[in-house]
Fold this sequence. Notes:
With 548 residues, this protein is an alpha+beta fold. The chain has helices at residues 35-68, 171-174, 380-383, 413-419, 490-501, 506-518, 531-544; strands spanning 78-85, 88-94, 103-111, 122-123, 134-136, 147-156, 159-160, 167-169, 181-187, 190-196, 214-221, 229-234, 237-240, 248-257, 262-266, 270-273, 285-292, 295-301, 309-316, 331-332, 343-345, 357-364, 370-372, 376-378, 390-396, 399-405, 422-429, 438-442, 446-449, 457-466, 471-472, 479-482. It folds into five domains: 78-174, Immunoglobulins (Immunoglobulin-like), CATH 2.60.40.10; 181-273, Immunoglobulin-like, CATH 2.60.40.10; 285-383, Immunoglobulin-like, CATH 2.60.40.10; 390-482, Immunoglobulins (Immunoglobulin-like, Sandwich), CATH 2.60.40.10; 490-547, no CATH class. It is built from seven helices and 32 strands. The strands form eight sheets. Strands 3, 4, 6, 7 and 8 form a five-stranded antiparallel sheet that branches. It starts with 34 loop residues before the first helix and ends with a helix.
Amino acid sequence: MTEVQPASPKPYDTPSRHRSHPGRPHAHLPQASGRAERSGGLMAGMVCVMGRVAAVLRCVLVVVIPLCVGQTNLKSPQDIEVYAVNTNFTLRWNYTGDGTNVTFSAQYQCFDDLQTNEPEWRELSGCQNVSHTECDFSSAITAYYDVHHLRIRAERREDKSPWSSIFEMVPYEIALIGPPEIALQSINGDIKIKVSPPEANQVRKIWLNPLLFKYNVVIWENSSNAEEVRILKILPIDVIEGLAPETTYCLKVQATIPLDYQEGLFSPIHCIKTTRKVNDLLCPTNVRVFALNMKFYLLWNNHYKEHVNYTVQYLTGFLKNLYDDYSSKWQKVSGCENIADMKCNLSSVIQPTSASHYFRVQAMNEYNKTCLSKDIKVDPLVTNEIGPPDVKVDISDVLLHIKITPPGGPANEIMSDLYDLSYNILYWKNSSDNEEVKTKETKQTIATISDLTPSTLYCVKVQAFSKAYNKSSDFSKEECVGTPGGRMNLGLVTHMKSKLLTLHRPLQSSLVRKYLRHGIMALPSQHPLGRRSYQQSATAACSISLLY
C-alpha cells in the first residue's frame, strides 16, 4: 500500500486576520454584560462547535481528495508468462488483489527490424475484459520472428490498475514444436511408420521449412513385464526392425529441430501388433559396403540354392527426407544389372563430393520371382575408411627427411582436402635398447627431423587422421635410414678395420664395400643382415671410410 503524504496547506486553511490571539483582548470590541454575555457565550459555543466540524471536514478532504485524483486500490497483475505451441499463444498471469468484479485487458507492441520509431501500444486481441487469469491471443500474432512486448492491467468499472511489468518475447524462440501425426502399418514382422510434420494441415505456420524436422521415436513392448524402451531416429517414412513377431508394441514420436536445439511435444501413444515374419531365401542378406580411399563396393550374401541374378538399385538420400512416397524413384546402378556376382562397384554413383545415397539389391530367380534386400545408407565421407599413407625417408647431414604420399596416391588428392588430413609421425632409434618413440604431428606432406645422433639407424612410420571426421588410418610400413658417422681416433679405427677384415659373410662384406663408397648407411629394417649386426658393421664401415 502506498503511504499517503500530508497535504500542503490549502487557501481555506489560511488563518483569518480577525482570529483572536490567546491572552490578547480586542481593544475595539465593547464589553458585554448580563444577557448579552449569556447570548454571547451561546454564540461563542456554537462557533466553537462549527469550527470543530470544519476542522474534521478539512481532515477528511486532506485524506480523500488525493485518492480521487489518479490513484486506485487495484493491484497490477504479476508473474506474466506466455505458453506457446506452434501458432497457439496463451497469456497467463497471477493476481493477488481483491478479484471481485475485476477484469483484465492487455496491450502489445511489435518491433519490426525496419522500424525506426517505437511502435504504439495496441489492444491485444483475445485479451480484453477477460475475467480469468489467462487468455488466448493467437489471432493477434503474425510476425513470428519479431520482438513483441506485452503488458496487462486489472480493471473494475472505471477504476484501472497500473500496467504490469513488460513481458518481452520472440514468438519463434518461445514456441514449442507441436506433436506430429503418425500412421502405422505392420509388415512381415516389422512396423512401417509414416510421419506428418507438425502444422501439416494448418494454414498459418510458424515452422516454415518441414525439412528441418528430425524425428525421434520411443517404442516399447506393451506387456506387464516389458522393461526395454528403445529410442530411435527415424525418417518421415521408415521401417522399425528387430521386433518380436506377433507382439504388441506401443510408440510415440517427437519432432525436433537440431539446428535450433528445439525439441517438441510427443505425439499421442499408438499401439500395433506385429505379424509373423517370413524369411524368403531368395532375398539378399547381410548387405554391406566396403570402402577404402574413396573406392566403394557393395557386398551381400544369398542362401538360395538355384541360379540367381542380381540388380543393384540406388536412391538419392535427399528423397528420403521428403514426406512423399519415393518407392518409384529407385534407379539401377550402371554395371550392376542382372549380374551373378554378389559384388558391385559403386564408383559410377558415388564420388568423393557426393551426397548420401541408399542402396539395395534385387534378386531374381529363373522363374522371374523377385525379392528386395533391406536398403543401406552410404554417406561417402562417413562410410569411407582412410588407408595408410606411403612414406619415403632420406638423410642429409644430420637431418632426417620424410616424404609422405597421402592415402590413395597422388590421384586422390581431393580426399585429403575433404578430410583435411593431418599426419602423426613416429620415429625412434633402432637399437637393441628400448629407445623412446618420439612423435611429430604435421599437416604437410614433407617433414624434417633434426638433432640426430651420428652413426645411428632411425626408423619411421606415419599415420593419417582426420579430426573433423574422427577417422584415422593404419600406420604405414616402417622405413629405416642411418645417419653418417663422425671422425674417430686412429687406434679405434685400426681395431675396427681388423674386425672388418674377418667378416665371413659375403653379404656383409659387399654391404660394407657399398657403404664405404657412399659414406652413408641406409637399409630397411627387415634386411637379412639384421639390425644389430648391420649397425656394428656399418659403423665400422663409416669409420674406415675415413681412411680412404
